[in-house]
Design goal:
Blueprint (H helix, E strand, L loop, with lengths): L3 H14 L3 H11 E8 L5 E2 L1 H13 L3 E6 L4 E3 L2 E10 L4 E10 L5 E8 L12
Parallel strand pairs: 1-7
Antiparallel strand pairs: 1-2, 3-5, 4-5, 5-6, 6-7
């Protein structure tokens, strides 16, 4: 049975996939804290408006079909982690691993996004 953090992550994933800007902004408001922070390969995102702006830029970029979870949402309240993939129109994909925490209202207050899978310690650049 999905709990409140899983529902928050579901809303967050749906926000990324939402093509309508007004509905996307409403989904972000429902799942991301006003002062929420997202750290990842892009410049750091601070607040809902900045997240909505990032999503708008992504929607204007290379065409993609959908974003979907590839793992369960692993919860250790208030922390969570999950894996996902972006499926592009040309058939390629991009893997993500996200982790973070929710605030007392159950909204994402910190999200750390890592693009591409981790390298094994035995690979070049590994430990």
């Amino acid at each position: 049975m999905a709990g409140p953090i899983e529902a928050t992550i579901d809303t967050y994933i749906r926000a990324w996939g939402e093509r309508d800007p007004a509905r996307r902004a409403a989904l972000v408001e429902a799942c991301f804290a006003e002062g929420g922070r997202m750290v990842g390969p892009s410049p750091e995102v601070n607040g809902r408006a900045a997240l909505v702006a990032l999503m708008t830029r992504v929607h204007a970029g290379p065409p993609w079909r959908r974003i979907r979870l590839t793992t369960v949402v692993d919860v250790r309240a208030p922390a969570f982690r999950f894996g996902g993939v972006v499926e592009y129109e040309d058939g390629t994909t991009g893997e993500n691993f996200d982790s973070g925490v929710v605030d007392a209202e159950g909204k994402i207050s910190l999200l750390m996004t890592f693009v591409d899978p981790l390298r094994a310690a035995s690979e070049p650049g590994g430990v």
